[in-house]
Model the fold of this input.
Amino acid sequence: MNLPPNPSRPPAVRMMEFLNLSPDPWQLQVLECNHPRKLLNCSRQAGKSTVVAVHALAEAVFTPYTLVLLLAPSYRQAQELFRKVTDGYHELGKPLLKRLNNEELLLTNHSRIVPLPCREETIRGFSNVSLIIIDEAARVPDDLYRAVRPMLAVSDGRLICLSTPYGRRGFFYQAWANGGADWMRIEVPAERISRIKPSFLAEERRQHGESYVRQEYGCSFEALEGLVYPDFARVIVAGPAPAGAPVGGLDFGVRNPFAAVWGVLDRDDVLWLTGEHYCRNQTLDFHKRHMPPEVMWYCDPAGARERIELVAGGRKVCKGINDLRLGIMAVRARLETGRLRVLEGACPNLLYEAGLYRYEDGAGGRGSETPLAENNHALDALRYLVSRLDERRMARDRRAVPPPEAGVAPPTPAPRPKEHWLKRWGNEDLWTPIG
Done:
């Protein structure tokens, strides 16, 4: 590998030129600036994955003992970024190769590049990390982002977060909007990318709407279309919460998060959420220690074993109601009537999920009635709680029958079968009354 002889330019820039890639001005800025924290807010197809792949490869080849982690929301996405790294590495002639497989690139200078999905069980254990690259950072949960930050403490390593916006939520948005001088920000809308034609953007507007194009191609943090609870953020209040009956909801999980939300139900039937517990890969006993003991909990009715263990451990736990559609309607009713409030800063994971929980788009513009089964753990805990608190209202909704069409008689309900006399609880031939 013989890079272009220009020692005044960083190796990554010369490596990009060696690979016959003409860097855009913003890509040169990424490669030449040594700021330890970078945010790349880029349009789709801007070339953000390509530039960070070259950056990672140059770090590993030219700096011995470098550990580079490539993180993404899923293993497939992490592998896609790693593939860009290995494609460039093959083009360079595979210098310093010791081992290359789907799990890592290991060089004879003791440098490594490792792709990982953003799951806590896969990213913990790494230390002395020189560079962390988080792809699709706007879709990475905050708790996992917080788990990787300590890896840079001892090594004084660098962090690059690249993404297209995904609504006004999550650490990527917070760092972009409120991170101050701690971050270097590079914004690359589609207008700066000559490869994206205006005619294509016009077609995208016709197909998906202006809000979608502003977010996917204009670097604008828009509200996500199709949200189950689009107005959830408006229930955030400064507090404090009034006195009331302590209540909470539970959604059980191990690899998926164990989620608990709790608060008080005041005398005006307003539910105030004042806290949450949100954690993966821990024992039920660990979770119990984080659950306020005075709370009346309503849980996922499918978790019979967990409920029994919590009750045996001194917690008051009852079954929630797992009717998804009616439960969502009950939560929406509280949102619309002002009977649900969340104290500011009390439930960050609940608010994060509310900004992502959405319905699946159907074919031909027909949307599904069932939300995607993701980003819903704290929201399910809330649903179990609200569905039990509002059980009578839900029962009325369940019994509601649409009015009959004009001239059509309503259907006659089927008669209830008469209960056999042997099954009656008051049958004194079978049971002896006490007292």
